[in-house]
Amino acid sequence: MCNKNLMSSDVFKPCNFPEHTYITRKSKDDIDYEQRLKLALNISGTLISIIGSSKMGKTVLCEKVIPLERQVNVSGADFSNGQDFWNVLAQKVGVPLEGQITENKQISNIEQHSKTEMFIMTKDKVIEYFVSNNKVLILDDFHYASLDAQKSISSHLKDAIRRDFRAIIISLPHRADAPIRKNADLAGRLSLIDIDSWKIPELEEIAIKGFNELNIAIPKEIANYIAVESLTSPQLMQYICLSICTLLEIDNSEIKVTEITSDILTKAFKFTTLNIDYADVVSLISKGPLSKGKKRSKFNTKFNVEMDLYQLVVESLAQNPPSMGLTIDDIRDRVNALINDNDPKPDRQKVKDTVIRMQKLIDEREDIYKVLEWKDEKIYIIDPLFLFYLRWGR
Ligand SMILES: Nc1ncnc2c1ncn2[C@@H]1O[C@H](COP(=O)(O)OP(=O)(O)O)[C@@H](O)[C@H]1O
Ligand SMILES: [Mg+2]
Question: Where does the ORC1/DEAH AAA+ ATPase domain lie (predicted)?
Fold first, then answer.
Protein backbone atom coordinates (compact mmCIF):
# COMPACT_ATOMS: atom_id res chain seq x y z
CA MET A 1 0.00 0.00 0.00
CA CYS A 2 1.29 3.45 -0.85
CA ASN A 3 1.52 6.13 1.73
CA LYS A 4 2.27 9.62 0.48
CA ASN A 5 3.19 10.95 3.90
CA LEU A 6 6.04 8.58 4.58
CA MET A 7 9.53 10.05 4.55
CA SER A 8 12.34 8.01 3.07
CA SER A 9 13.98 7.79 6.50
CA ASP A 10 10.80 6.16 7.88
CA VAL A 11 10.93 3.54 5.16
CA PHE A 12 14.61 2.66 4.88
CA LYS A 13 16.16 2.05 8.26
CA PRO A 14 19.74 0.78 8.13
CA CYS A 15 20.29 1.06 11.86
CA ASN A 16 17.08 0.04 13.56
CA PHE A 17 13.80 -1.77 13.17
CA PRO A 18 12.53 -1.45 9.58
CA GLU A 19 8.80 -1.33 10.15
CA HIS A 20 7.94 -0.60 6.50
CA THR A 21 10.60 -2.70 4.82
CA TYR A 22 10.67 -5.76 7.08
CA ILE A 23 11.13 -8.92 5.00
CA THR A 24 10.17 -12.38 6.20
CA ARG A 25 12.69 -15.03 5.16
CA LYS A 26 12.69 -18.79 5.22
CA SER A 27 15.37 -20.74 7.06
CA LYS A 28 17.07 -23.82 5.57
CA ASP A 29 14.23 -26.08 6.70
CA ASP A 30 11.77 -23.94 4.74
CA ILE A 31 10.09 -22.46 7.81
CA ASP A 32 9.98 -18.69 8.36
CA TYR A 33 12.53 -17.50 10.91
CA GLU A 34 9.71 -15.77 12.80
CA GLN A 35 7.81 -19.05 13.00
CA ARG A 36 10.88 -20.88 14.21
CA LEU A 37 11.50 -18.38 16.96
CA LYS A 38 7.85 -18.48 18.03
CA LEU A 39 7.92 -22.28 18.17
CA ALA A 40 11.12 -22.23 20.17
CA LEU A 41 9.69 -19.73 22.65
CA ASN A 42 6.72 -22.03 23.11
CA ILE A 43 8.78 -24.94 24.37
CA SER A 44 9.42 -24.36 28.01
CA GLY A 45 12.67 -25.63 29.46
CA THR A 46 14.80 -24.84 26.42
CA LEU A 47 17.42 -22.23 25.82
CA ILE A 48 17.33 -20.51 22.42
CA SER A 49 20.63 -19.87 20.68
CA ILE A 50 20.57 -17.57 17.65
CA ILE A 51 23.75 -17.45 15.64
CA GLY A 52 24.46 -15.40 12.53
CA SER A 53 27.02 -13.06 11.03
CA SER A 54 27.05 -9.41 11.94
CA LYS A 55 24.11 -7.34 10.67
CA MET A 56 22.13 -10.24 9.23
CA GLY A 57 18.99 -9.45 11.23
CA LYS A 58 19.33 -11.28 14.56
CA THR A 59 18.26 -8.36 16.74
CA VAL A 60 15.55 -7.28 14.31
CA LEU A 61 14.13 -10.83 14.30
CA CYS A 62 13.75 -10.79 18.08
CA GLU A 63 12.14 -7.36 17.93
CA LYS A 64 9.69 -8.60 15.32
CA VAL A 65 8.61 -11.70 17.21
CA ILE A 66 8.71 -10.65 20.84
CA PRO A 67 6.46 -7.78 21.94
CA LEU A 68 8.44 -4.93 23.43
CA GLU A 69 6.87 -5.32 26.86
CA ARG A 70 8.09 -8.91 27.11
CA GLN A 71 11.69 -8.11 26.19
CA VAL A 72 14.51 -7.71 28.66
CA ASN A 73 17.60 -6.76 26.67
CA VAL A 74 21.13 -7.12 27.94
CA SER A 75 24.42 -7.28 26.09
CA GLY A 76 27.37 -9.62 26.51
CA ALA A 77 29.38 -6.43 27.10
CA ASP A 78 27.47 -5.98 30.40
CA PHE A 79 29.35 -9.03 31.65
CA SER A 80 32.78 -8.25 30.31
CA ASN A 81 34.23 -7.77 33.79
CA GLY A 82 32.67 -10.80 35.37
CA GLN A 83 29.79 -8.93 37.02
CA ASP A 84 27.33 -11.25 38.61
CA PHE A 85 24.72 -12.46 36.20
CA TRP A 86 21.68 -12.31 38.50
CA ASN A 87 22.62 -8.93 39.95
CA VAL A 88 22.88 -7.41 36.50
CA LEU A 89 19.46 -8.82 35.60
CA ALA A 90 17.96 -7.69 38.90
CA GLN A 91 19.19 -4.17 38.29
CA LYS A 92 17.95 -4.25 34.73
CA VAL A 93 14.37 -5.18 35.63
CA GLY A 94 14.29 -3.25 38.88
CA VAL A 95 14.08 -6.17 41.28
CA PRO A 96 15.48 -4.79 44.54
CA LEU A 97 18.70 -6.42 45.64
CA GLU A 98 18.81 -7.99 49.07
CA GLY A 99 20.62 -5.10 50.71
CA GLN A 100 23.96 -3.83 49.59
CA ILE A 101 26.79 -6.31 49.78
CA THR A 102 29.83 -4.46 51.06
CA GLU A 103 33.34 -5.51 50.33
CA ASN A 104 35.07 -6.56 53.52
CA LYS A 105 38.75 -7.30 53.57
CA GLN A 106 38.39 -9.80 56.41
CA ILE A 107 35.30 -11.62 55.33
CA SER A 108 34.36 -14.01 58.08
CA ASN A 109 32.69 -17.33 57.48
CA ILE A 110 29.35 -15.91 58.57
CA GLU A 111 29.59 -12.99 56.16
CA GLN A 112 30.66 -15.25 53.35
CA HIS A 113 27.68 -17.44 54.09
CA SER A 114 25.23 -14.55 54.04
CA LYS A 115 26.66 -13.30 50.77
CA THR A 116 25.84 -16.65 49.13
CA GLU A 117 22.38 -16.59 50.62
CA MET A 118 21.67 -13.12 49.29
CA PHE A 119 22.90 -14.22 45.88
CA ILE A 120 20.46 -17.14 45.86
CA MET A 121 17.64 -14.86 46.90
CA THR A 122 18.43 -12.44 44.07
CA LYS A 123 18.46 -15.32 41.62
CA ASP A 124 15.12 -16.69 42.86
CA LYS A 125 13.53 -13.28 42.77
CA VAL A 126 14.73 -12.58 39.25
CA ILE A 127 13.49 -15.92 37.96
CA GLU A 128 10.17 -15.41 39.69
CA TYR A 129 9.89 -11.92 38.19
CA PHE A 130 10.60 -13.20 34.67
CA VAL A 131 8.18 -16.10 34.92
CA SER A 132 5.28 -14.23 36.47
CA ASN A 133 5.64 -11.28 34.08
CA ASN A 134 6.14 -13.49 31.04
CA LYS A 135 9.47 -11.82 30.25
CA VAL A 136 12.07 -13.07 27.80
CA LEU A 137 15.75 -12.43 28.36
CA ILE A 138 17.50 -11.41 25.14
CA LEU A 139 21.22 -11.64 25.71
CA ASP A 140 22.62 -9.99 22.60
CA ASP A 141 26.26 -9.96 21.47
CA PHE A 142 27.11 -12.80 23.84
CA HIS A 143 30.61 -12.90 22.27
CA TYR A 144 31.40 -9.65 24.11
CA ALA A 145 31.21 -11.37 27.51
CA SER A 146 34.52 -12.70 28.81
CA LEU A 147 35.02 -16.43 28.36
CA ASP A 148 34.67 -16.96 32.10
CA ALA A 149 31.44 -14.99 32.13
CA GLN A 150 30.14 -17.01 29.19
CA LYS A 151 30.78 -20.26 31.00
CA SER A 152 29.28 -19.04 34.21
CA ILE A 153 26.19 -17.61 32.46
CA SER A 154 25.65 -20.93 30.67
CA SER A 155 25.56 -22.81 33.92
CA HIS A 156 23.25 -20.26 35.57
CA LEU A 157 20.91 -20.53 32.59
CA LYS A 158 20.94 -24.31 32.58
CA ASP A 159 19.40 -24.25 36.00
CA ALA A 160 17.03 -21.34 35.32
CA ILE A 161 15.43 -22.66 32.14
CA ARG A 162 14.20 -25.73 34.01
CA ARG A 163 12.17 -23.32 36.05
CA ASP A 164 10.50 -21.83 32.98
CA PHE A 165 12.87 -18.91 32.62
CA ARG A 166 12.87 -17.86 28.93
CA ALA A 167 16.17 -16.82 27.39
CA ILE A 168 17.65 -16.16 23.97
CA ILE A 169 21.40 -15.99 23.47
CA ILE A 170 22.57 -14.17 20.36
CA SER A 171 26.11 -14.47 19.04
CA LEU A 172 28.37 -14.52 16.01
CA PRO A 173 29.30 -17.82 14.35
CA HIS A 174 32.50 -19.57 15.56
CA ARG A 175 32.97 -17.05 18.31
CA ALA A 176 30.97 -17.68 21.40
CA ASP A 177 29.05 -20.78 20.52
CA ALA A 178 31.16 -23.28 22.47
CA PRO A 179 29.95 -22.51 26.02
CA ILE A 180 26.35 -22.82 24.84
CA ARG A 181 26.18 -25.10 21.84
CA LYS A 182 28.90 -27.53 22.85
CA ASN A 183 27.90 -27.62 26.49
CA ALA A 184 27.01 -31.20 27.37
CA ASP A 185 24.79 -30.03 30.23
CA LEU A 186 22.60 -28.19 27.78
CA ALA A 187 22.39 -31.01 25.24
CA GLY A 188 18.79 -31.73 24.37
CA ARG A 189 17.64 -28.46 25.88
CA LEU A 190 18.72 -26.10 23.12
CA SER A 191 16.71 -24.58 20.31
CA LEU A 192 19.18 -23.60 17.62
CA ILE A 193 18.43 -20.94 15.05
CA ASP A 194 21.11 -20.21 12.47
CA ILE A 195 20.56 -17.03 10.50
CA ASP A 196 21.87 -17.42 6.97
CA SER A 197 23.31 -14.60 4.96
CA TRP A 198 20.84 -12.94 2.63
CA LYS A 199 20.18 -14.14 -0.90
CA ILE A 200 19.77 -11.76 -3.86
CA PRO A 201 15.95 -12.13 -4.20
CA GLU A 202 15.47 -11.47 -0.47
CA LEU A 203 17.56 -8.30 -0.70
CA GLU A 204 15.68 -7.17 -3.80
CA GLU A 205 12.45 -7.35 -1.83
CA ILE A 206 13.67 -4.61 0.53
CA ALA A 207 14.11 -2.14 -2.33
CA ILE A 208 10.90 -3.14 -4.07
CA LYS A 209 8.82 -2.97 -0.91
CA GLY A 210 10.35 0.32 0.24
CA PHE A 211 10.08 2.24 -3.02
CA ASN A 212 6.56 0.92 -3.43
CA GLU A 213 5.74 2.44 -0.03
CA LEU A 214 7.13 5.74 -1.31
CA ASN A 215 5.09 5.41 -4.50
CA ILE A 216 8.17 5.18 -6.71
CA ALA A 217 8.69 2.48 -9.30
CA ILE A 218 11.89 0.48 -9.30
CA PRO A 219 12.64 -1.79 -12.27
CA LYS A 220 13.55 -5.34 -11.34
CA GLU A 221 17.03 -5.12 -12.89
CA ILE A 222 17.87 -2.08 -10.79
CA ALA A 223 16.72 -3.77 -7.59
CA ASN A 224 18.88 -6.70 -8.66
CA TYR A 225 21.96 -4.55 -9.23
CA ILE A 226 21.62 -2.94 -5.79
CA ALA A 227 21.09 -6.36 -4.24
CA VAL A 228 24.31 -7.68 -5.81
CA GLU A 229 26.26 -4.69 -4.50
CA SER A 230 24.70 -5.14 -1.04
CA LEU A 231 26.90 -8.22 -0.63
CA THR A 232 24.44 -10.33 1.41
CA SER A 233 23.74 -7.46 3.81
CA PRO A 234 20.18 -6.18 4.40
CA GLN A 235 21.72 -3.25 6.21
CA LEU A 236 23.69 -2.19 3.12
CA MET A 237 20.54 -2.56 1.05
CA GLN A 238 18.73 -0.20 3.41
CA TYR A 239 21.67 2.24 3.38
CA ILE A 240 21.93 2.32 -0.42
CA CYS A 241 18.18 2.81 -0.90
CA LEU A 242 18.25 5.66 1.59
CA SER A 243 21.21 7.20 -0.26
CA ILE A 244 19.24 7.04 -3.51
CA CYS A 245 16.34 8.83 -1.82
CA THR A 246 18.63 11.53 -0.46
CA LEU A 247 20.38 12.11 -3.77
CA LEU A 248 17.09 12.28 -5.67
CA GLU A 249 15.56 14.47 -2.95
CA ILE A 250 12.45 12.38 -3.00
CA ASP A 251 11.19 13.88 0.28
CA ASN A 252 11.03 17.26 -1.42
CA SER A 253 7.42 17.53 -2.60
CA GLU A 254 8.37 19.94 -5.39
CA ILE A 255 10.54 17.34 -7.05
CA LYS A 256 8.50 14.56 -8.59
CA VAL A 257 10.41 11.32 -8.80
CA THR A 258 8.33 8.48 -10.22
CA GLU A 259 10.94 5.88 -11.11
CA ILE A 260 14.46 4.93 -10.08
CA THR A 261 16.84 4.89 -13.03
CA SER A 262 20.30 3.38 -13.29
CA ASP A 263 22.21 6.66 -13.69
CA ILE A 264 21.98 7.40 -9.96
CA LEU A 265 23.42 4.08 -8.77
CA THR A 266 27.18 4.65 -8.93
CA LYS A 267 26.77 7.96 -7.15
CA ALA A 268 24.55 6.31 -4.52
CA PHE A 269 27.09 3.53 -3.87
CA LYS A 270 29.86 6.08 -3.38
CA PHE A 271 27.66 8.30 -1.25
CA THR A 272 26.82 5.31 0.98
CA THR A 273 30.49 4.77 1.81
CA LEU A 274 30.59 8.16 3.53
CA ASN A 275 29.04 6.34 6.49
CA ILE A 276 31.68 3.62 6.55
CA ASP A 277 35.35 3.94 7.28
CA TYR A 278 37.79 1.09 6.95
CA ALA A 279 40.80 3.19 6.00
CA ASP A 280 42.87 1.82 8.91
CA VAL A 281 42.05 -1.77 8.03
CA VAL A 282 42.91 -1.24 4.37
CA SER A 283 46.14 0.46 5.33
CA LEU A 284 47.11 -2.39 7.69
CA ILE A 285 46.59 -5.17 5.16
CA SER A 286 47.95 -3.37 2.13
CA LYS A 287 51.15 -2.44 3.94
CA GLY A 288 51.62 -5.97 5.24
CA PRO A 289 54.04 -6.89 8.05
CA LEU A 290 57.27 -4.91 8.49
CA SER A 291 59.68 -6.20 5.87
CA LYS A 292 63.04 -6.50 7.62
CA GLY A 293 65.24 -4.70 5.17
CA LYS A 294 64.24 -7.04 2.34
CA LYS A 295 62.72 -5.21 -0.59
CA ARG A 296 59.43 -6.52 -1.84
CA SER A 297 58.95 -7.28 -5.52
CA LYS A 298 56.87 -4.71 -7.32
CA PHE A 299 54.60 -5.32 -10.27
CA ASN A 300 53.52 -2.92 -13.01
CA THR A 301 49.76 -2.70 -12.91
CA LYS A 302 47.02 -1.63 -15.24
CA PHE A 303 46.37 1.29 -12.89
CA ASN A 304 49.74 2.66 -14.11
CA VAL A 305 51.27 2.37 -10.65
CA GLU A 306 53.63 -0.19 -9.21
CA MET A 307 52.19 -2.38 -6.49
CA ASP A 308 53.57 -5.07 -4.22
CA LEU A 309 51.73 -8.31 -3.60
CA TYR A 310 49.92 -7.02 -0.50
CA GLN A 311 48.46 -4.12 -2.40
CA LEU A 312 47.57 -6.39 -5.30
CA VAL A 313 45.76 -8.89 -3.09
CA VAL A 314 43.73 -6.09 -1.52
CA GLU A 315 42.86 -4.78 -4.99
CA SER A 316 41.93 -8.28 -6.11
CA LEU A 317 39.30 -8.54 -3.36
CA ALA A 318 37.61 -5.41 -4.71
CA GLN A 319 37.32 -6.68 -8.30
CA ASN A 320 34.22 -7.86 -10.17
CA PRO A 321 32.15 -9.84 -9.66
CA PRO A 322 31.77 -9.00 -5.96
CA SER A 323 32.38 -12.16 -3.98
CA MET A 324 32.47 -12.86 -0.24
CA GLY A 325 34.64 -15.99 -0.56
CA LEU A 326 37.68 -16.49 -2.81
CA THR A 327 40.09 -19.39 -3.30
CA ILE A 328 43.83 -18.78 -3.76
CA ASP A 329 43.35 -19.56 -7.46
CA ASP A 330 40.60 -16.93 -7.69
CA ILE A 331 42.87 -14.37 -6.06
CA ARG A 332 45.85 -15.32 -8.21
CA ASP A 333 43.73 -15.00 -11.39
CA ARG A 334 42.48 -11.61 -10.27
CA VAL A 335 45.99 -10.46 -9.33
CA ASN A 336 47.35 -11.61 -12.70
CA ALA A 337 44.63 -9.70 -14.49
CA LEU A 338 45.68 -6.54 -12.66
CA ILE A 339 49.32 -6.84 -13.78
CA ASN A 340 50.34 -5.64 -17.23
CA ASP A 341 49.92 -8.40 -19.77
CA ASN A 342 53.55 -9.13 -20.70
CA ASP A 343 55.01 -8.68 -17.21
CA PRO A 344 56.02 -11.55 -14.91
CA LYS A 345 53.31 -12.77 -12.51
CA PRO A 346 53.71 -13.89 -8.87
CA ASP A 347 53.54 -17.63 -8.26
CA ARG A 348 50.63 -19.24 -6.47
CA GLN A 349 52.56 -20.03 -3.28
CA LYS A 350 53.59 -16.38 -2.90
CA VAL A 351 49.99 -15.30 -3.23
CA LYS A 352 48.96 -17.83 -0.59
CA ASP A 353 51.73 -16.75 1.81
CA THR A 354 50.62 -13.14 1.41
CA VAL A 355 47.00 -13.97 2.21
CA ILE A 356 48.00 -15.97 5.29
CA ARG A 357 50.27 -13.19 6.57
CA MET A 358 47.49 -10.67 6.06
CA GLN A 359 45.18 -12.83 8.12
CA LYS A 360 47.79 -13.03 10.85
CA LEU A 361 48.02 -9.24 11.01
CA ILE A 362 44.26 -9.04 11.40
CA ASP A 363 44.12 -11.76 14.05
CA GLU A 364 46.49 -9.74 16.23
CA ARG A 365 44.21 -6.69 16.17
CA GLU A 366 40.96 -5.60 17.81
CA ASP A 367 37.53 -6.78 16.63
CA ILE A 368 37.05 -3.88 14.24
CA TYR A 369 39.89 -5.27 12.11
CA LYS A 370 38.35 -8.74 11.84
CA VAL A 371 37.08 -8.40 8.30
CA LEU A 372 38.67 -11.49 6.75
CA GLU A 373 38.77 -15.13 7.72
CA TRP A 374 41.12 -17.71 6.23
CA LYS A 375 39.40 -21.07 6.44
CA ASP A 376 39.39 -24.31 4.40
CA GLU A 377 41.84 -22.89 1.87
CA LYS A 378 39.59 -19.93 1.15
CA ILE A 379 39.60 -16.33 2.21
CA TYR A 380 36.17 -15.20 3.40
CA ILE A 381 35.16 -11.59 3.71
CA ILE A 382 33.13 -11.72 6.88
CA ASP A 383 32.18 -8.06 6.96
CA PRO A 384 30.12 -6.99 3.92
CA LEU A 385 30.61 -3.30 4.76
CA PHE A 386 34.37 -3.79 4.39
CA LEU A 387 34.06 -5.20 0.87
CA PHE A 388 31.60 -2.50 -0.04
CA TYR A 389 34.10 0.11 1.16
CA LEU A 390 36.86 -1.54 -0.89
CA ARG A 391 34.70 -1.45 -4.00
CA TRP A 392 33.27 2.04 -3.73
CA GLY A 393 34.95 3.98 -0.95
CA ARG A 394 38.46 4.71 -2.16
N1 LIG B 1 14.06 -8.96 8.15
C2 LIG B 1 14.60 -7.79 7.74
N3 LIG B 1 13.98 -7.05 6.80
C4 LIG B 1 14.51 -5.89 6.36
N5 LIG B 1 15.66 -5.37 6.83
C6 LIG B 1 16.34 -6.05 7.78
C7 LIG B 1 15.84 -7.30 8.28
N8 LIG B 1 16.71 -7.77 9.20
C9 LIG B 1 17.70 -6.85 9.27
N10 LIG B 1 17.49 -5.81 8.44
C11 LIG B 1 18.35 -4.61 8.28
O12 LIG B 1 19.65 -4.90 8.76
C13 LIG B 1 19.96 -4.07 9.88
C14 LIG B 1 20.78 -4.85 10.89
O15 LIG B 1 20.00 -5.85 11.50
P16 LIG B 1 20.29 -6.36 12.99
O17 LIG B 1 19.13 -7.18 13.43
O18 LIG B 1 20.68 -5.21 13.84
O19 LIG B 1 21.55 -7.28 12.73
P20 LIG B 1 22.33 -8.19 13.79
O21 LIG B 1 21.60 -8.14 15.10
O22 LIG B 1 22.33 -9.56 13.17
O23 LIG B 1 23.71 -7.61 13.83
C24 LIG B 1 18.61 -3.60 10.42
O25 LIG B 1 18.71 -2.37 11.12
C26 LIG B 1 17.83 -3.45 9.13
O27 LIG B 1 18.15 -2.26 8.47
MG1 LIG C 1 22.39 -7.28 16.85
Answer: 46-158
Ligand located closest to 13 CA: 1
Q: How does residue 321 score in pLDDT terms, banded at 50, 70 and 90?
A: very high
pLDDT at 26 over 90: yes
Task: Select the highest-mean-pLDDT range: 34-38, 81-85, 182-186.
Answer: 34-38
- Using the predicted structure, report yes or no on whether residue 106 has a pLDDT greater than 80: no
What pLDDT is stored for residue 105 in this prediction? 43
At 134 the three-state DSSP class reads coil
Residues with a beta carbon under 5 angstroms from ion ligand 2: 59
Contact 302, 340 (CB under 8 A): yes
Name the 3-class secondary structure at 324.
coil
- Backbone φ/ψ region at 39: left (φ over 0), alpha (ψ -120 to 50), beta: alpha
CA distance 170 to 137: 11
Kindly state the helix (H) or strand (E) to which residue 379 belongs, with its residue range. Answer: strand 378-381
Name the percent of the chain in helix, strand, coil, to the closest 5: 50, 10, 35
Ligand 1 closest atom vs CA 16? 25
Q: Catalogue all structural domains in the chain, each as residue range(s) with its CATH number.
A: 8-17+199-274 (1.10.8), 33-103+112-195 (3.40.50.300), 279-392 (no CATH)
Helix residue spans in the chain (DSSP H):
8-11, 33-42, 58-65, 85-93, 109-132, 147-162, 178-181, 200-213, 220-229, 234-248, 265-272, 279-287, 309-318, 328-338, 348-363, 384-392
Cα distances (angstroms) measured from residue 219 to each of 138, 200, 226, 366: 39, 15, 11, 41
For the residues 216-243, what does the mean pLDDT come to?
Answer: 97
What residues contact 291, with CB distance under 8 A and at least 6 apart?
none
Mean pLDDT for the stretch of residues 70-94: 89
Return the pLDDT at 100: 47
225 within 8 A of 185, measured Cβ to Cβ:
no
Three-state SS letters, 217-239: ECCHHHHHHHHHHCCCCHHHHHH
**Could you say which ligand is closest to the alpha carbon of residue 235?**
1
Range 112-119, long-range pairs (CB < 8 A, 24+ positions):
119/84, 119/86, 119/87
Residue whose CA is at the smallest distance from ligand 1 atom 14: 55
Nearest to 168 by CA among 18, 55, 63: 63
